[in-house]
Amino acid sequence: MSVTDVTGGTPATFGMAAKPAPAKGPDAPASGTAAPTIGRNGTVDTVSLSPDALRAMTTGVIAFNVPKADDSAAKDPVAARMETMLARRDYDLKQADYMREAMGMLRQTLNLPEDQPIVLGGAAHGLLDRLAAKNGLSRPEMPDALRSAGVKDPFEESAKEEAGVIGIGMPNSGKEMQVAFDRLGLDALSGSKNTPVRMIALKDGDDRSGPLLGAIKGGALGRLTDTRPGQGASLWAVTDGAQGPNARVLASVRSVGMDDVATGMAAGLLKGLKGLFAGT
Asked: How far apart are CA 264 and CA 168, in angstroms?
């Protein structure tokens, strides 16, 4: 086999079981062939060196160029997939730990029931992050390996939405409640401690219900509030204290099978939300 001489001379050749070079007298000129050495199992290896290599060995300095790694070279696809899988597993575990701690803080702050599942949507994720940060807890950062693979944080965009929803109870279980809130409205309201809020029941045929229901459907709350008839649900509009057509709807409350506690629970939840937006 042949090994390229990186010092710039002719290739150096390794001959396996080569015949030994003939002996030379003491006055024989120096050549590029080193004395044969006996290898394993009695084989003789002869190494021919270029003049440049001989000079390098004589001076004790050997220099050669190492090719620089190409950063743009594509990674091995199997290794890349494995790296992504491991990064996703680690990220999911950190997210689960974060959500468990943060949700415990949210339950305690908003006085939410411990025996009911809690569902968050839209800007409620941003509110959760705000509460967690206030208590020294940060949402884990997505690893670069996942971002490079095109994975997106499902909560990053929704946290910036205008409206959010907090659901109590399992959806479609016959006992559930959702409070959808206008983030910008509550944020503006948080600056005034004495501004009252009013919960107004929305009923068919009620003159007050039409404009408020229209404001819910046509505003930021419309996407998060189920206003379909025939669901066996009760619906309330939460305003900035007014009840006429000029009232600003800050939230909607929808209840199925929880009407006996819906108003009190929603009032406490909204009070807690207002406090969170105010930073208290």
From this structure: 13
